[in-house]
Amino acid sequence: MNNSFLSPSEIADFTINLGIRKANMTASTQFILGILAGAFIAFGAEGANMATHTIADVATAKLIGGLIFPAGLMLVLMAGAELFTGNNLMIIALAERRITPLELLRSWVIVYLGNLAGGVLVACLVSWSGQWNYTGGLLGGFTLKAAAGKVILPFVDAVVLGVLCNWLVCLAVWASFGAKDGISKAVCVFFPIWLFVASGFEHSVANMYYITAGILAKGQALYVSKALELGASQAGIDALNWGSMFTANLLPVTLGNILGGAGFVGLVYWFVYLRGRKS
Question: Which end of the chain is more exposed for a tag (fewer CB within 10 A), N or C?
């Protein structure tokens, strides 16, 4: 064993035990920690919007936004919180029959709802803060444009973008489990998350902030006009509401996130390192 980093097989064992601990948390603890994670990811999202809202070149904007957004997951993993997308790795404990399907689903649902509450909370606070008036309301328009684009994604596209996103997110979480110091954990998180943001993939918990913020921004005529100036489609703005947030984005993106995280990371590593192994 490397003294500074766990091997992948050791990370697999660690993930089993962590999944058991997560499943055994009380509902209230999971929900509160879920609120914190939703808020931490929302801080990363709103910071990325602030940093990029005046950058016209899309590639540059995503590159810069990707430098800011990883702070959210760093806070989740290092300050302590429960994030639905990262918790997709609990599938390993299920595959090892150390937790039941009901325990897994219970944890995922409670944490998901907590994440939603945290994302909505930060979106409301940012809305009330007047932050979106930056640059003559351009930040509000940028916020609205980003949300409007998310609710008109084709269903299959949203699923696949969700798969790609949480494949990278869970790889970041997996690698961070192997790190034994804060700097190493931060590095493990930073690059995969930067890659997913720069690539434009879809993260369900981040979208809880992005789309809520867009819905709130839609209520201001100034932000609507700025969004249209930035190139937002009128159809996207018209489609943006609480119903489309869930049916047009969170549903397909969440399904994709589960497949990418639980399937392409959790079950793959379980198969490689744990399947058929004697206790």
Answer: C
Separation CA 35–CA 187 (nearest Å): 25
**pTM of the predicted protein model:** 0.96
In degrees and rounded to multiples of 5, residue 231 shows phi and psi of 105, 10
The amino acid present at 12, given as its one-letter code, is A
Measured in degrees and rounded to the nearest 5, phi and psi for residue 2 equal: -70, 130
Tens digit of each residue's pLDDT (9 = 90 or more) over 85-139: 999 999 999 999 999 999 999 999 999 999 999 999 999 999 999 999 999 999 9
Q: Which residue has the tokens 């979480």?
A: 173
Instruction: Report the C-alpha gap between 86 and 102 in whole angstroms.
Output: 18
User: pLDDT per residue over 182-206, tens digit each?
Assistant: 999 999 999 999 999 999 999 999 9
Q: Hey, what amino acid is at 73? A: L
DSSP letter for each residue of the chain: -BTTB--HHHHHHHHHHHHHHHHTS-HHHHHHHHHHHHHHHHHHHHHHHHHHTT---HHHHHHHHHHHTHHHHHHIIIII---TTGGGGGHHHHHTTSS-HHHHHHHHHHHHHHHHHHHHHHHHHHHHHTGGGHHHHHHHHHHHHHHHHHTTS-HHHHHHHHHHHHHHHHHHHHHHHHB-SHHHHHHHHHHHHHHHHHHT---HHHHHHHHHHHHHHTT-HHHHHHHHHTT--HHHHHH-SHHHIIIIIIHHHHHHHHIIIIIIIIIHHHHHHTTT---
